[in-house]
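Fold this sequence, please.
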Amino acid sequence: MTVDTRYQPRIDLDIEVEIIYRKRCIQTRSRNVSSGGMFLATAGMTIPPGTFIGMEFTIGEKPWQIDGLVIRQNEIGIVCLFRMPQPELHKSAGNYRKSLENKAPARLKRPNPTQPNAHLARSTAES
């Protein structure tokens, strides 16, 4: 069993994030975010710990540009510590996540069981 040593609560959040690293823009996706950092999926790419990167992304309607420090990398991605804490980002991420959960999925229109193949009768009548 491992002990979770993170000090800040994480919000699972899958959004597109653009990493600015060595004057290149790299498209990736976030896995989670806290007020102090973010986990980014960067499989197959190496950004060594101790490297400063820029991150650009949008949550809801609000764009964010944040600098951070890569503190750990594994085969899935990197952990980036924000240069400055971002409590407003954490709050925005939580609100955005809740808004996604509250959206009701679109309901499919079901055919009337008392009229089998009613949809077929309409299409042949229109022909």
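The two ends are 67 Å apart (CA to CA). Residues 11-97 form a domain with the Thrombin, subunit H fold (CATH 2.40.10.220).
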